[in-house]
Amino acid sequence: MATLTHLVTPEKKVTSYETALHNFDVAAGKIELDRDIAHLLKSPDRELRVELPLMRDTGRLEVLVGYRVQHNNARGPNKGGLRYHPDVDLDEVRALAALMTWKTAVVDVPFGGAKGGITCDPAKLSINELEKLTRIFTSKIDCVIGPNEDIPAPDVNTNAQVMSWLMDEYSKRHGFSPACVTGKPVDLLGSYGREEATGRGVVIVFREAAKSNKIDFKKSTVAIQGFGNVGSNTAKILHDMGVRVIAVSDAKSGIYNAKGINISEVITHVKKNRVLSGFPKCEEITNAELLELECDVLIPAALDNQIHKGNAEYVKAKMIVEGANSPTTFEADEILEKKGIPVIPDILANAGGVTVSYFEWAQNLQQFRWDIERVNDELEKVMVRSYHDVEAMSRKHKVSMRIGAFILAVDRVARATKLRGY
Length: 422
Ligand code: NAD
Hints:
By secondary structure, the chain is an alpha/beta fold.
């Protein structure tokens, strides 16, 4: 395994919002997008900042801050996840909301884009505090969400349980409303297959991209950063298909074995110990080392801005498939392009989650449940079609897959905006 010989911290941090705006500008320039439309699509429709007074178990009051940003709803109700993390701020939520507009347009599901979050460290909250916080947040954003307005979903550090509390709190005011949120448990009107949908989508897109980039999918070696919903499901599906996952990581550290790691055993280990560290028959590595491993495919599936101008030069993977949102800064993109490393962008690669969220929403509205085969078949169709739409666009304009995806999305959203009228 390679050891790091350089510092990985960049001098000035590029934010996800700067990256999102940069990619939008490049795509808008390529299709000579009307100046007024460009102006409209660059900024969010609505930004809500709310104070969240949380009475801690200790009896002390803590006032936390939450956000819901709705970027654009020209193509349908706003849609996007809810993140609980200490780094959540308005700029990050803005960037993630815009990415949701482009993502729902890439896979052509009838939604716009939104994102929300609370600046907090959920690891320091009891389950009781987490539930209270979610209910307070829901009551504060109640005025802007709803099945036809804005439909939240899970993201970093939120899950099906958090979505259940959200649904319950919303339903107290509006009557039983399962379609107000997706990513719910199957026992509470969630969709079969939603839990693993983002990972399944990543794998489908990876398989298609492997064909185009002359990588033997079945024989490839894969390193995955992040072992939460996206990382662990991607790893598990690949492992079950016989693809060799050689490294995975969580916030604390990573594990590496060039011969491949038994992901089912890792999942059992994490359930018991909560962390990857200590998993046998593997070498312990850092997150920085994982990003620079010799492998065929690197899948960042943790947080934003992990591949930046300070480390992009040292990436040795033959291809990057973005499970996370905005894991690569625009400066890193330029370096990777020069090195000839294709990047399959977030707004395509991780769109399996929002696609099955769309299926869940549709099932809830129709009060009709699909079986798992139908969910996975429909997901496969959407992801394969979207991959080839993006590839065709990137070939047509002689641009990267990221800019191809942005062109496809921006053009679709611009058309819908024009048709609806300003
Ligand atoms: P999660 O909370 O389930 O997991 C996050 C993982 O990242 C955990 O393993 C955590 O330990 C790890 N992590 C946290 N900080 C880290 C750090 N500094 N370095 C390395 N690893 C770190 O979250 P998730 O739902 O899997 O989301 C991961 C990414 O995928 C995010 O960018 C999210 O926006 C994106 N995404 C999620 C979904 C979804 O359906 N959950 C859909 C599309 C995109």
